[in-house]
Amino acid sequence: MSRSKRIIAITAAMLATGALADDTASIKPIVGAFLGAVLQGDADTMRDLANPDYIQHNPFIPTGLEPFIALLPVLQEAGTTAENIRMFEDGNYVFMHNIWRNAAPFGADEMVSFDIIRVDENGKVAEHWDAMAPLVTETVSGRTQTDGPTEVTDLDKTEENKALAVALIEDVLMGRDPARITDYISAENYAQHNPMIADGLEGIISAVETLTAQNNMFQYTEIHAVLGEGNFVLTVSEGQWNGATNAFYDLFRMEDGMIVEHWDVIQPVPTEGLANDNGMFTGFDK
Q: In the chain, N or C terminus with fewer CB closer than 10 Å?
C-alpha cells in the first residue's frame, strides 16, 4: 500500500471511532494516524509520519523511532489496544486522554494515560511525553477516570483558561495562597474524576484535610507545561507525594471563568530501569 493510502486508511479508521475531529487545518489527524499505526504494528506508516530521531520521554521506552518500532511485536503479542477519549491541540502539540487495554507491557491490564505529541514544522511526529496509571473500577465520586464532556468550546478563552489553571496550582497546590481556592474552583458545580476524591469543593477540602493529617499532602514544586484548547487545559507538573517525586498531569474543564471539572494521572518518576535519559519533564516549550 502506498504512503498516502496507508495514512488515509488509518486516519479514516480513527475518524470512524471518534478518535479525532475531521479538521484538515489541524495536526490532530497526523497524531491520530501515528497512534493508529502504532496499534496496528504498521512500521512503514510510522516511518512516514515520524522523525527518525523521535524523542521519547516515557522512561521505559527507548528513544528514537527504530527502537520504538522494535517494541511493536510486544504490543501485538499482548493484544494492546487504545481508546482515545479526548484529543486537543495547542500550537504544535496534541494532547490526548486515552484508555489502554491488554496493557500489561505498560504495567497493568487496563491503564489510563495522558499523552502529549509534538509535531515539528515539517509535519512530522517528533516528541512524546506521557503519564500512565492503572484504571480503577471504584471511585469515591462514582465517576470514572475518563467519563464526562469532550466537546471543545470557548476557543477565544484558551489563554484566559490556561492562566486560571496556573493560578490554581501556584496558589493552592504550591501553597502561595491556599485560601484563594474559591476563586478558582466552582462551589456550585465541580465534577471530580480523581478516584480518591469526592465531587464538589467540599470533596477537595476533605481530601486536603485527610492528606495533611497523614503528613502526605501533594506538594507541587514546578509547572513544566500548560496546554489548552478552549475550555480544556492540561498542566504537567512535578512534585512530591508518598515520599517520591511524581509527575502530575491535571486536565481541567472551565465554564464562565471557573474550574468545573478535573481529571488527572499521577505517576511516580522512576529512578531505576530507565530505557532513556531524556527525563519526563524536559523539552517542553512553555
A: C
